[in-house]
Specification:
Layout lengths: L3 H10 L1 H9 L4 H6 L5 E3 L26 E14 L2 E8 L8 E4 L4 E7 L7 E4 L13 E4 L21 E4 L1 E6 L6 E7 L5 H6 L3 E7 L1 H5 L8 E11 L5 E2 L21 E3 L1 E4 L2 E2 L2 E6 L1 E8 L6 E6 L4 E6 L2 E9 L2 E3 L4 E7 L8 E6 L8 E10 L21 E12 L6 E4 L18 E8 L3 E5 L3 E7 L14 E4 L5 E6 L5 E7 L2 H5 L3 E6 L1
Parallel strand pairs: 1-14, 2-5, 4-11, 7-8, 12-18, 17-25, 26-28
Antiparallel strand pairs: 2-3, 5-9, 6-10, 10-11, 12-13, 12-15, 15-16, 18-23, 19-22, 19-24, 20-21, 20-23, 24-25, 26-27, 28-32, 29-31, 29-33, 30-32, 33-34
This protein binds CU-O-CU linkage and copper (II) ion (2 copies).
The site of one copper (II) ion has 7 residues, from loops.
Length: 516
Amino acid sequence: MISRAVSRRGFLGLLGGAGLAVTGCGGPGGLLTAETSGEVLTSALPLPRPFTVPLPVPATARPVRPGHYEVVQRAAKVEIIPGTPTEVWGYDGTFPGPTFDLRRGSRTVVRVRNELPVPTSTHLHGGVTPPDSDGYPTDLVVARGRGFRPAPGAHAHHDPAPWTLHAGARDYVYPLEQRAATLWYHDHRMDFTAPQVWRGLAGFLLVRDDEDDALPLPKGERDIPLMICDRAFEEDGSFRYPSVDPSLLVKPGVEDAYMEGVEGDVILVNGAPWPVLDVDAARYRLRLLNASNARRYRLALTPGGRFVQVGSDQGLLAAPVAHDTITMAPGERFDVVVDFSAHPVGAEVTLVNTLGTGPARDVMRFRVARRARDDSAVPQRLSRVEPPDRSAAVATRVFDFRRTGQGGGGSWTINGRPYRPGDSLARPRLGTTELWRFTGDFHHPVHVHLARFQVLARNGGPPAPADAGWKDTVDVRPYEVVDTLVRFEGYRGRYMMHCHNLEHEDMAMMADFEVV
Ligand code: C2O
Ligand code: CU
Ligand code: CU
């Protein structure tokens, strides 16, 4: 039986013993100290010189008529590594996809047409979205003329899988009844999210509102979304990924040791390798997104500079928080203001990742090009965010993220269970708040669909400075206990929570919950 499930088991099996010990995942000693959250896949082509490619800013999506958009998921050749074409799978054939720039409460319908050789499911990360538009992993769009049959024996860990198939295209409805925030959309197909996002299926959706607009924060050209992710490349320029699926294979033969998660040795910002941006000597609002499959970043500015955080995953903080470094797990967003007027014209300010090694230590560079007028400011009061109140919780639930079943049958699980669609681990009531405690055996960035939350405590102590504000994704480190207060608002129905390390997610580290 050469089904995907068997290959997947082989994939896990390879890691049952020595592989894990070597990478530090097997023993608690390694886990407690390690900051790394995946295994680096190295590129087969010569890497470009950093800070030579200008930073691209993704195009803004244009409606076909008010409130209605259409995007086509298709393959396209783009130039990521200078002089070498790379085939991406992108929304409108671009990577990142177009940025949707939308207003709070403006109901938006996005028709997604799939022209790719694989099924897709599009999820708006951070969206308060009705369940049937949330991008459930078995709710698939299949290109016209392409059949869909799960391989025999595949998906054994979620049988019978309740597939819903849309031929050619489908509409996703986004009411956007939520605060201004930096959201992003990406593929969410069952078992294949990691390789499909790796190939380019991700983009920004910005929600704006009057409260955020009224603040004197940097605007226009000085308000820039930055999608940070890592990739590796084959010699011919194609993306390198250790996929076990023949239809997704970039090149065979590199499929072991990646159960922890796949990291690349090339850091991309908005799809460009280690780009450079000429900036005014002024304040900029940078909307940082870690869109990597598995890589964590600890961002810093050299030779110096601070990040003044004004927003988190789910919009404005109550007050700004200054950071020398920002640690970002996959899926997290940090909305920061950086003031380049502190540097002389001609200065070069490099954004680095102090958790990275070799070429992956650099992220991008800002070149202070000119003096300029700057009317912006960061007010001491940004928004009303009530501090979390533990007594508001009507229930407490514990979710343990852990690898189970060493060897052949292993997978990443939540509370000991590999994902089964339709099996809810929790039934919170609409309009209530619950205390959700997350813990686990490795780096597991925990993401909850629909519901936003505030971090109450880490290991019984106060939350970290970077935990401030409303979030939808939280960095849970090995053996850490993170308490969050989750607010269930918006819609009743079936949603999910999962680890946002996309390889863990594909290896079953997901769970449904149902808002009742
Ligand atoms: Cu960004 Cu369910 O994912
Ligand atoms: Cu999400
Ligand atoms: Cu995980």
